[in-house]
Structure formats: structure tokens, C-alpha cells
Amino acid sequence: MTIPTVALGQGGIVTSSLSFGGAVIGNLFTEVSDEQAEEALSVSYEAGIRYFDTAPHYGLGLSEHRMGRFLSGLDRSSVTLSTKMGRLIRPNPNYAGGQDTQGFAVSGKLHREVDYSYDATMRSLEESLERLQTDYVDVVFVHDPDDHEAEALEGAFPALEKLRSEGVIRSYGAGMNQSAMLTRFIQRTDLDVVMLAGRFSLLEQPALEDLLPLAQSKGISVVAAGVFNSGILAREYPPDGSHYNYDIAPADILAKARELARVCVEHGYSLPQVAAQFPLTHPAVSVVCLGARNGDQALRNAALFDELIPEQFYRDLLEQGLLSEGSLRY
Predict the structure, then answer these.
(1) Which structural domains are found in the chain, ordered by start?
(2) What value does the mean pLDDT take over residues 14-20?
């Protein structure tokens, strides 16, 4: 299957409906070699992916460095590139050996300074451009400002608005694991794209109550990330000890995931295949973002879209109470 192209935001960006998420090549949880990262990126590009997302947070800049080396060998205009702000990468004054403490298998010689101010936004983008070996990015997201809403509204968003008005970036928004604050950002800023992680997935759809209807009404593009809910939907049958929301899945969540897996298999589909495609059933969702730590995973991600899931299957899930009302675009 050829990956479809879609409009992203309101700045004229047209890109692939499947994007590459750069957290895993920042050594998320386990180490990834330079060769594996390069292979994951190149196989994704060869499969038709033209949207690549990263962040300074991912591996204390490692993901941006690796993505920059890869993109330097391409026609920059052939891809859409997004990064994030909110964490400046600085030398760690308390370093005494050991690794990063925020889930990435990298040295702790560097650390993150959380800062959502106007000046920090400008510095963050400048430093990201250097790591990415490019003179522009297409989209900048305010990254997980859960405890910094006021600062983001007063500092980060005005800075991004200035950058967009000057043509330095084409679009801006916010990326979070919750829908409520993203909804408020849509109401209070002129952002045109948001990245929502985990809150509109095959397993749960709380964003139907706030974010998705508002985004649709205002023409805001939604990038759906975390579609496997930390891994519980990433296998054909969720095993004991599956992770959900970065922790061990509670019994009720595991039971629902297994019931979804059973219904998928009965209809001839795999749980990861349906989980990957499901967010695109809503008209507000433009892109699904999936990570890969090697070429095999990149091939698998693309293959999840080889066969499109028909409308009737989702209707069956709805009738069985496995999806929330209002989930489908049809």
C-alpha cells in the first residue's frame, strides 16, 4: 500500500499520514546503536514515510542528532520535520556517573532544564536546528507542559506565534498525554496542530469528550501518538505484565485489551494492525505516529497499513461496547 498524503495544520504542509516517532532512537528504555537508528529511519523513508518527529527530551538530544545525520543525506524539502520545546539540554552539574534518570539509556552527563519561557523557546529551537543540521523545522510542539500551563501560555506560545509569523516555522502546537489542557490551548491560542498521546486509542477514547470535536470544528490537525498505550496493544495477544500508561496494566485494562485482541483475530486482523489504524477513523486525526528502533520494526509499522480495516469492523466493535459512541468518522 502507498501511504496516503494529508494536510497537516494550516500552513500548507502536505505529508504522509504515517509518521516516524523519534523517541525510541533516543534510546528510550534500551540502547539503540547508530546503525540500527539509521536503518530504522532509512527503511521508514523507503516505505513512504515523509513525516519525522523528534524532541530534545529524547535521549538528551540523541534523537535529534541521529535524525539530523539521516536527513542531511536527503532533499530536506521532501520531508516534514517536527521537534519540541520545554526542556533545554545542559551539562549536569551534579553528574557523578550513571545514566539518565528519565527513561533513556544515555549518559547522565547532560540533563534537562525545564523552561517554557519566551526566551527559552527561542534558544531551544536554535539548539534543535544545530543538532538537526537544518536551517528550519516545519512544526514545533510545546512538550508536556502539564505543570507549566501559565508559563506556556505567557511565554512559549507567543514565541512560536512570532516564529510562524516570520516564516521561521510553518505550524506550531502542543504535544501531551492529556486532552483537557490541549483543548484549553486550542481555545486560548492560534495553534494549528496538536499531538495527542494515548487518549484516543483502540483501548480508550476520552478525547472524544473535549479535544477532537473542538479540533474538528476549528480545522486543527491532530497527530495521534502512543496508539499502543505504552505497549499493551503492540502484540497480537497482550501477555501478563503488559504495560499501560508507562506502568503495569491493571486487571480491567488487560482484560479489555485481550477482548479486543480476540475480536480482531476472529475477523482476520491483528490487534496492532487495528490499533495503528483506528485513530484515523476520526476526521480530526490526520497522522498516526509510530516509533521504530530498527529496520524490522520500521517494516512492520508500514505493513500495519497494507490492508485497510473496513468500516463494518469498527461498527461491530461499537455494537459490542468496545468503542465509545462518536468514535468513527463514518
Answers:
(1) 5-319 (3.20.20.100)
(2) 98
